[in-house]
């Protein structure tokens, strides 16, 4: 039996379009129909866009005329996280604060996808301003995990993950500040890539933690993730933190990879069946000829604490621009100060307020040395430890998350939610690229829930990630 | 121990208003979060300073400006209130 168009990967859909087994219109409509049918249950999309007739026609003409040389993304319907700007469309970052905000320009990644002929199906739900690990912090209701609707899809890119996993689109863009692409990918059985810091332009991404944020793909296969990454990456004059290709040492990709495993981090806190799945996957990679090496990353155990100092500090700074003046939610009181305070109080949800206050605290006089500067120094040490480890290993592996997707409301105290990010945040602190790939399922309450294996590579070594990713996929 | 007054002060600095029950809730949560991130205080780090990265100019060179007013209409459309393409705000200096 052949796959339905909306269930295809980018590679499969691109082939079918070129073979004239499928038109761009049919592919787009199949995704839109699935999205309209399932979104009321899943709440993956905050908005499904009306069909863009001109873009559909242009993509079809391009495939018909350019055939094999047309970009692989031409005519492919994608979903875009609600914090990435598409000109003329609402970009709310799932916040009441920006509910009425219409993007005045295209994000660089959106421009690049449009140039490749990709179609945008809609904007996806997320934790407000991308703060959270479950999408429960969205101002517009939580997204549900397609594998078990009693459970979260992860976050903050939970809407993008649920949309791809439920085949409501072919692939999606997310953003990752502490694991927000990789954790939802693991919870929904997808491939998620956080590129090297600076590999992908952040122009047109609503800023959360500016030294941590990266845009990346959520896809059904490693090859699909690679196709999107190669389309969106590159230096950009609109983002001075983007880096040219070859800034870091170009690494050969050996046939057999050395996989570094920091066993000291896995001694406690990881569910037994998740650890079993991890060890089984590593065992198969060894059988396939790859080798395991022990690596020591001692400062990792402090990484989460450093992250929850640096990230709120950057959040409180970045969100200071949202004051009800030039755009967004605007309340008018008696004084100008009332205008600011009332707009922000009504506009921001609880988790946003919590992190803005935390950030204000760690940056305040008297605490900045003890918290912020210490965290920044720990970050530099952590990066050196990873650089050292990459002298003996090509990639570093651990489970993406300590547990599979949790139930709604299960992590109601903020600290327990933060602790789930323990494995993903180091890649954001060091700026290194990281990939989550499915490593089977574990069972909870009679439901099979996907879990992911996480690989980190040196800066700009995305190709090593794609290689180990495809090796893992093929097991 | 974080007090309600301390949380109130942070909220004032952050231009956010918190209600009574929220103050209490945040004060309790901050204790747990600060206890966790407080482990950084005990973390021993090597004394030597991290080498500064090589500096490079990340600024665009001046030139080729866009046409005056090219984006004005789109930006003004987002203003909560405007007059002649200018943002309307409260008068903060008076002659009284």
Write a structural description.
The complex is a heterodimer of chains A (475) and B (96). With 475 residues, chain A is α/β, with parallel strands linked by helices. Chain A has a domain at 5-232: Amidase signature (AS) enzymes. Chain A is built from 15 helices and 11 strands. In chain A, strand 2 (77-81), helix 4 (108-115) and strand 3 form a beta-alpha-beta unit. In chain A, helix 9 packs across helix 12 (368-389). The longest helix of chain A has 22 residues, at 368-389. Chain B is mainly alpha-helical and 96 residues long. Chain B has a domain at 4-42: Orthogonal Bundle (Histone, subunit A), CATH 1.10.20. In chain B, 41% of the residues lie in helices and 4% in strands. Chain B has helices at residues 4-13, 20-37, 39-42, 72-78, and strands at 82-83, 86-87. Chain B has a two-stranded antiparallel ribbon. In chain B, helix 1 (4-13) crosses helix 2. The interface between A and B is large, with 57 and 40 residues.
């Amino acid at each position: 039996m052949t796959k339905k168009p909306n269930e295809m990967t980018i590679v499969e859909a691109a082939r079918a379009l070129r073979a004239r087994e499928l038109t761009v219109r049919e592919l787009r409509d199949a995704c839109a129909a699935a999205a309209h049918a399932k979104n009321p249950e899943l709440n993956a999309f905050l908005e499904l866009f009306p069909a863009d007739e001109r873009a559909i026609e242009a993509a079809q003409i391009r495939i018909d005329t350019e055939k094999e040389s047309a970009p692989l993304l031409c005519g492919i319907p994608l979903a875009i996280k609600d914090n990435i700007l598409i000109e003329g469309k609402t970009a709310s970052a799932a916040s009441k604060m920006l509910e009425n905000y219409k993007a005045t320009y295209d994000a660089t990644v959106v421009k690049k996808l449009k140039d490749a002929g990709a179609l945008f199906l809609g904007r996806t739900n997320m934790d407000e301003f991308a703060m959270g690990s479950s999408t429960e912090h969205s101002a517009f209701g939580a997204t549900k995990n397609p594998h078990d609707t009693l459970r979260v899809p992860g976050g903050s890119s939970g809407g993008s993950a649920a949309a791809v996993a439920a085949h409501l689109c072919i692939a999606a863009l997310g953003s990752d500040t502490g694991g927000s692409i990789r954790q939802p990918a693991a919870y929904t059985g997808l491939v998620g890539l956080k590129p090297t810091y600076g590999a992908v332009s952040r122009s047109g991404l609503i800023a959360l933690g500016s030294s941590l944020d990266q845009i990346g793909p959520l896809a059904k296969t490693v090859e699909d993730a690679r196709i999107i990454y190669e389309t969106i990456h590159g230096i950009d004059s609109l983002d001075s933190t983007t880096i040219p290709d070859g800034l870091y040492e170009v690494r050969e990709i050996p046939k057999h990879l050395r996989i570094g495993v920091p066993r000291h981090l896995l001694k406690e806190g990881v569910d037994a069946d998740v650890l079993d799945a991890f060890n089984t996957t590593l065992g198969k990679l060894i059988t396939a000829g790859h080798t395991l090496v022990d690596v020591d990353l001692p400062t990792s155990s402090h990484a989460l604490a450093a992250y929850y100092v640096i990230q709120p500090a950057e959040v409180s700074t970045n969100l200071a621009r949202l004051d009800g003046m030039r755009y967004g939610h605007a309340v008018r009181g008696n004084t100008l100060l009332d205008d600011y305070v009332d707009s922000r109080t009504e506009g921001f949800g609880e988790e946003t307020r919590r992190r803005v206050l935390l950030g204000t605290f760690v940056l305040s006089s008297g605490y900045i040395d003890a918290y912020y500067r210490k965290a920044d120094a720990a970050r530099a040490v952590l990066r050196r430890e990873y650089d050292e480890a990459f002298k003996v290993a090509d990639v570093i592996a651990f489970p993406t998350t300590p547990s599979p997707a949790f139930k709604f409301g299960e992590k109601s105290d903020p600290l327990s939610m933060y602790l789930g990010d323990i494995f993903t945040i180091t890649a954001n602190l060091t700026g290194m690229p990281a990939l989550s790939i499915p490593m089977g399922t574990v069972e909870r309450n009679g439901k099979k829930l996907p879990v992911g294996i996480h690989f980190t590579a040196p800066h700009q070594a995305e190709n090593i990630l794609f290689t180990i990713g495809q090796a893992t996929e093929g097991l | 121990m974080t007090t309600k007054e301390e949380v109130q002060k942070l909220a004032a600095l952050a231009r956010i208003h918190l209600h009574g029950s929220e103050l209490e809730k945040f004060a309790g949560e901050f204790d747990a979060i600060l206890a966790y991130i407080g482990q950084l205080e005990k973390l021993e780090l090597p004394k030597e300073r991290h080498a500064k990265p090589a500096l490079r100019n990340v600024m665009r060179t001046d030139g080729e400006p866009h046409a005056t007013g090219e984006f004005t209409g789109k930006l003004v459309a987002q203003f909560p209130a405007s007059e002649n393409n200018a943002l309307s705000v409260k008068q903060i200096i008076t002659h009284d």
